[in-house]
Every structure is written in structure tokens, then in C-alpha cells.
Amino acid sequence: MQNGIYLRNGPGLWHIDDYNFRHLFDGYAMMVKLQFENGRLVAGHRQIESEAYKAAMKNRRLCYREFSEVPKPGNFLSYVGELASLFSGASLTDNSNTGVVGLGDGRVVCLTETQKGSIMINPVTLETIGKFEYSDSLGGLIHSAHPIVTDSEFLTLLPDLINPGYLVVRMEPGSNERKVIGRVNCRGGPAPGWVHSFPVTENYIIVPEMPLRYCAQNLLRAEPTPLYKFQWHPESKAYLHVMCKTSGKIVTSVEVPLFVTFHFINAYEERDEDGRVVAVIADCCEHNADTTILDKLRLQNLRSYSGSHDVLPDARVGRFTIPLDGSPYGKLEAALDPDEHGRGMDMCSINPAVLGKKYRYAYACGARRPCNFPNTLTKIDLEKKIANNWHEEGAIPSEPYFVARPGATKEDDGVVISMISQKNGEGYALLLDASTFEEIARAKFPYGLPYGLHGCWVPKNHNKP
After folding, report:
1. What is the 3-state secondary structure (H, E, C) of 231-279?
2. Is 196 annotated for ligand binding?
3. CA–CA separation, 147 vs 197, rounded Å?
4. What percent of the chain has pLDDT over 90?
5. Could you tell me which residues come within 8 angstroms of residue 436 by beta carbon, excluding any fewer than 6 positions away?
6. C-alpha triplet 238, 242, 243: angle, nearest 5°
7. Which of 52, 279, 388, 432 could form a disulfide with 270 if both were Cys (CB 3.0 to 4.6 A apart)?
8. Element (H, E) at 87
9. Could you write out the DSSP letters of every residue in 416-453?
10. Are residues 126 and 150 in contact, defined by beta-carbon separation less than 8 angstroms?
């Protein structure tokens, strides 16, 4: 195992005194680290000190709008003021509880759906350094929670809620300035589709337009709807837009079957025998166009599960084929039989070396049913169309994260790291051989840690305080 730090972000505190939050995504962010040094492992965790978290701890009440939670106004005038601050973005949370990325310049940034929720941390001490301030004047309130980050660039999408569309932007290492590559105008719906993540190929950026669209009315409501800040618009249809990374021009926009996804896995260009690009292939964790997955993640639903019935909605590796021959339609089909991974599919990772390229393996959380939440780790072989699954009774694994072995030449030569939450409240760090998917080691935590979301790997030469 190479030396470095695995960081995992996620919600870690779901209450303020005796007030309990509603949804998994509401919790205040907690960063966990696994620091590997010469065969030894040191673990630690710390709350990310966002303004939302600090205000809640000081005032002992909710002070900012979270995923499903809204501060309770004291009177009508304060309600009007709260609405005004919503439109300005002042009342939106900066609770960066979704992901964490290591930039090419060594800075480590925690992220969520709001732009103001970009917060820098020290990867060794986990101390909150402060806000990551964007120095450009692009504005907007939200962005994709999962940018594409490499040693040479940072790519993300900025949804435009006023004139429905998306700005595609790039930021270079060492800079805080995002520069516009191009813009995509929405082809359907009253608002942009939710873009929690998006994929890229070597030459293209794929912008998904999902019929699960942002909804201003739902944002204004004091009590959440089953779709929270979104609304399902099947009549608006679904589209994928392909943009040239270099010129910012739209290469094609195709209508695709309705879909629901949080996480894209990867994408690549398909070429003919003469080397010409004839299609783009994009894979995602697709929920069979079923929006109920959002409400299944209410804390009450998760905590009240008895284990006797199957309530986790089905999911698959959804594979989009986007033709580049001028056809107006693309395809969506399962990349392999969903029963291979128990019809559960989310929280995915790949070997970063194959980002945007044709690839064979993906690592994700699958299901052994009956269940109400993904409860296995699965290695997907897209060439053989099979899955290798890890499961332990009473265990809930978090995102499996692939770390390559130094000097590796094979795509699956490395380890997969996951943090496991157990039914009895305990937990441990798990290392699997990415090739065989056999356990290499586990390290029990001295106390239980909450379920987390997404992580990143910070090599040793990047993690000096």
C-alpha cells in the first residue's frame, strides 16, 4: 500500500439538541481520514466548520437552508426576510457534506451543491482552513457537487436557473478563477435538470439534462415535498449534450430515454476502424427513471427498517450510446444484467488512469436483498458483464475507492478502500485487493462512525500541512 491519505466526506451530525433532521443529506459534514504510512494506519475524524455548522452550534438551532430543512421564522417579517435571503443565496447552506477533491496544486476542497459550500481543509489535521473563494464574476448559486478533477484542470457545470441551461467552466491549478468553455441551453422543461455529476471523454464534456429538474416553488416551501428541491417533468424529456472541450461548441444533442442518476461512472469515445469517433459511451448508476430513491433516504425510513422486506429501488449500470452521425436519438440500456450486483448500484469509482477512456472495471455499492440501502461492495467487469460481490451480514459499506499500486500497468492492479458501518454501531476500515476482490486487511475503529459519502486519495507528497 503506497503512503498517503484517504479522505472521506459525508454528513455526520443529524440533530441539534433534541431537534432531529429529516434527511440523510441534511447532516453537518464530517471528514474522516485513513493515513497510510509505511504499513501503519492512523485514522481520525473532524467536523467541517462551515458557517452553517458554527451558527447551529452557537445558536442551538438551524440557521441555514439544508437539503430538506428550513429555519423556522419567528414572525411574518422574518419569513419575508428569509425569502429575500434565499433569492440572494445568503440563506443557502455552505454545509459541504458531499465530496472532497485534491486539486492539482495540492489544495484540498470539500464540496456540496452550493457554490458557497466550497471549503478548504488541511488533509493531515482535518482542520478547516476557510472558504475556497472563486475569484471570477460568473455568479450563480449552485454547481455540480462532483467536478472532474485531474492534475491539470478542474471542470464543472453551473446550472442557470433564470435562463435554463448550463455554463461549462474550467479552472487551472493554482487559480481560483473559473473560465467559461461554453454554454448549453436546455431543450426541455421549465428549469435545468439536476446535475449532481457529469462525465467527460478525452475530447468531450457530456452535459446531462435529466427530467428531474430544479424547482423554485419547492425551494420556497417551508415543508419538503417527496422530491425536495426538484420536480419530475417526464413530458420535458431527457437529453445528453456533447461539448468539445477545446472549442466549447456543441457537437450533438440527443434525446434519450427518461433516466434518474446521481452518479456518472465514466465515458469514452467509440471509434471505427479508421479511427474516427462515431459515438460517445457514457455509463452511470441509473435508477430506472424512478425518483422514489430520494424519499427512501429520509432518516425515518432508514432507521425504521425491520429487515424483513425489500424496499431499496432497483438500479443498474445504465449505458448511454450517443451517436455522432447527426441522429437525434441516443440509446440507454443496462451494461450488464442488474441481478449480477443485486439490482443495487451507486457510489462508484474507477481507476483514475482510465478517466475519459475505454475501461473495463468499476467499483460500486450493490445490494443483497432484502434491504433498504446498498449493502455490498461490487466489482463490475464490463467486458465479461459479470460482478464480483463482497458482503458481510449487518455491514453497510461506504463508497469503494480505488487506489492504484505504484508502478501498476493493469487497470485493476491496486486496492479498494471502504469504511464499513456495522449494525451494532461499530465500524472498521476495509482494504480489498482490487484484482481478486479478496480482503487484504481490516482495521477496527475504536468507536462507531456515521455512514459517509465520497472520498479522494491524497498522495504523500501532496499532503504536507
Report:
1. EECHHHCEEEEEEECCCCCEEEEEEECCCCEEEEEEEEEEECCCCCEEE
2. yes
3. 7
4. 88
5. none
6. 135
7. 279
8. helix 76-88
9. EEEEEEETTS-EEEEEEETTT--EEEEEE-SS------
10. no
309 annotated to a ligand binding site: no
**Which residues, in sequence order, are CB contacts of 349 under 8 Å at separation 6+?**
362, 363, 364, 399, 400, 401, 402, 416
pLDDT tens per residue across span 37-79: 998 999 999 999 999 999 999 999 999 999 999 887 655 445 5
- Cα 185 to Cα 62, 182, 249, 260, distances in angstroms: 36, 10, 12, 20
The C-alpha atoms of residue 56 and residue 64 are separated, in whole angstroms, by 8
Name which of 9, 218, 204 is nearest 98 in CA terms.
Answer: 9
Residue 23 counted as an annotated binding residue: no
Please state the pTM of the whole predicted model: 0.95
Q: Which residue has the cell 478525452?
A: 202
| C-alpha–C-alpha distance, residues 382 and 359, integer Å | 8
CB 52 within 8 A of CB 64: yes
